[in-house]
Amino acid sequence: MARRELLQLGHTYQPDKHTIAGFYVSEKLDGTRCFWDGGLSRGCVTAAVPYASVLDPKTGRRKAKIKPVATGLWSRYGNPIMAPDWFLNRLPCCPLDGELWAGRGNFQLCRSICAGDAPDERFDQIQYAVYSTPPLPQVFCDGEIKNANMLREINRARIETWVRDRATDLPDFVCVDPTATFDDELLFLREMIPSQDDRVFMHQQFKLPHDEAAAKATADAFLQRVLDKGGEGIVLRDPAATWRPKRVKSLLKYKPFEDAEAVVTGFVAGKEGKQGNVLGKIGALKFKWGNVEFEIGSGMTMAQRELHGSDARLHAVAHPGDELPSGFHGKHFQLGQVITFKYRELSDDGVPKEARYWRKRDAVE
Fold first, then answer.
1. Same domain, 88 and 227
2. Does the model's pTM come out above 0.90?
């Protein structure tokens, strides 16, 4: 069975490899990726929704914890996002793909609001920036989703029957044609999303020049403006491309740093140095990333470097620069925890260069 993802993913833009003349460009928002199924699954038992993530990818068995009721809003890994009714009532009866967002620099706030098992009273701080309206035949095409966060076989015939049954309760439900291009999607969204809504809005897209050199220069200038405002990067989209639930070259991410996720495998005791005294604290985190093991000592605040318990602190003072025994851990970090780090590029051995801690991964995925 063909491999696929739940949603469409992009590649990293490489100026010497990719052609972007005539593409759309937009700011890459630092929030929670979110798919709205048009309300088809709202109020359904989550486990009964044929595209919900109900299996543990590690064991293949049913997850120990599944949010009981779906809202129609889904994370990129098929988990319900528990938005309040007043927010859901503002969404149109058509599929949407976009980002739940709390503003630049508020990633952790956004994730904490969206990750709960019940609607968070702080949801009034969340906006839904919509950049696509994927056609359901493409969203639900046959294939297997198999990654570290989701394991699910998608059967189009089964889902189409389920959709028909659900759509009888949604007489206003509409969807773009399966052959719709990104240009077509934008035209459709302009009809479906009220321009005056400050909670749910079309994410602003700008067209690049059709001359390649001018397009690259415009994209670089736009990226710099986004970075100057505290943003993290930009996204480039081919106006003639059709939506596909996989990683596609018609969708490109452009950032000064790459980011990836890794598992914390250990802690290195800090020591006195020119960059600051971290004696008795965490000097570096040890990670395993694929087959590569490495350390990250940058990007953590002093508070995040705190160790848990006096025994751990005393041991770190007595053994600066050494790896701490497995029984010790930090106040902020635990062994086995998944974190996100940033890096400039990979060495010839596949080790991330200039790696810095960025943030902990939240459970919303």
1. yes
2. no
CATH of the domain at 305: 2.40.50.140
- In this structure, are 226 and 263 located in the same domain? no
The residue type of 241 is: A
Two tokens at 202? 């079309």
Residue numbers of the domain that contains 293: 258-360
- Are residues 247 and 265 part of one domain? no
Count of domains in the chain? 2
CB atoms within 10 A of CB 265: 17
Do 65 and 144 sit in the same domain of this protein?
Answer: yes
Residues 166-201 have pLDDT tens digits of 888 888 999 999 999 999 999 999 999 977 678 999
As a whole number of Å, the CA-based R_g of the chain is 22
Copy the structure tokens of residue 270. 């800090």
89 to each of 134, 298, 302, how far by Cα in Å?
Answer: 20, 43, 43
Q: Which two tokens stand for residue 33?
A: 């990726």
Same domain, 152 and 97: yes
Quote the tokens at residue 312: 């751990």
d(CA 297, CA 307): 15
Distance of CA 336 to the CA centre of its chain: 20
What is the SS3 assignment for 108?
Answer: helix
- Mean pLDDT, the chain, integer: 91
Q: How far is CA 41 from the centre of its chain?
A: 21
Residues 174 and 291 in one domain: no
CA distance from start to end of the chain: 24
- 128 DSSP assignment: E
Choose one of 254, 288, 311: the last residue of a domain.
Answer: 254
Phi and psi dihedrals of 78, rounded to 5? 75, 25
Local structure of 7: helix, strand or coil: coil
| Identity of the residue numbered 215 | A
For residue 166, give every residue at least 6 positions away whose Cβ sits within 8 Å of its Cβ, in sequence order, or none.
Answer: 40, 41, 44
Q: Which residues pair with 341 in a beta bridge?
A: 260, 357
